[in-house]
Design a protein that fits this description.
Elements lengths: L12 E5 L6 E6 L2 E6 L5 H11 L4 E2 L5 H10 L18 H10 L8 E2 H7 L6 H9 L12 E2 L14 H12 L3
Parallel strand pairs: 1-4, 5-6
Antiparallel strand pairs: 1-2, 2-3
Helix pairs in contact: 4-5
Length: about 180
């Protein structure tokens, strides 16, 4: 009798990265980056957020050192270009297009929800872009903080510190050469 072995996916791994703004974090899976998080008030809060979505994730302090360095440098106000493979599994085709277009917006620049919708091929979907930003699993790699309202207002921001954090991130990037 031949036994069938059941292959299981490797457990997601995570890393918490010290930044001047607090501990940022990311979770890595077999197909790339599963999730990243903006700085939290403390490491305990970061771990809670990670384990709420990935209860079986294990910490790996050596995980993706270039990404960890880039996250730390981003929050130090240094220029970075995130080169990381995103695991887009489960994202709608629209969200994938929106996130890919947004990654083309350079640091220190901004785009409106309406313009981003147009660039993603759905000019009437500005509200859909807003929802995609609210549900962005990859901040700041997918830089949702660079998206503004049609009047130039900050709009919303889904993070622990909310709109204040969005403003600070935009200010950091405006100082980058």
């Amino acid at each position: 009798m031949v036994s069938k072995s059941t292959a299981t996916a490797p457990r997601p791994r995570f890393r918490i990265v010290a930044t001047p703004a607090g501990p940022a974090w990311f979770v890595w899976g077999a197909s790339g980056l599963l999730r990243s998080g903006l700085p939290e008030p403390d490491e305990g809060t970061a771990r809670e957020r990670i384990h709420a979505e990935f209860p079986d994730a294990i910490e790996d302090r050596r995980l993706e050192s270039p990404l960890a360095k880039d996250l730390a440098n981003f929050f130090r106000g240094k220029p970075v270009h995130f080169r990381v493979r995103l695991d887009e599994t489960g994202l709608t085709p629209f969200r994938v297009r929106v996130y890919r277009e947004l990654r083309k917006v350079k640091a220190g620049s901004t785009v409106t929800y309406a313009e981003l919708a147009r660039r993603a091929g759905r000019p009437a979907a500005a509200r859909g872009v807003g929802q995609a930003m609210r549900r962005n699993p990859f901040p700041p790699i997918v830089p949702c903080h660079r998206v503004l309202t049609s009047t130039g207002g900050l709009g919303g921001f889904s993070s622990t510190r909310g709109i204040d954090q969005k403003q600070e991130m935009l200010e950091l990037e405006s100082q980058v050469d």
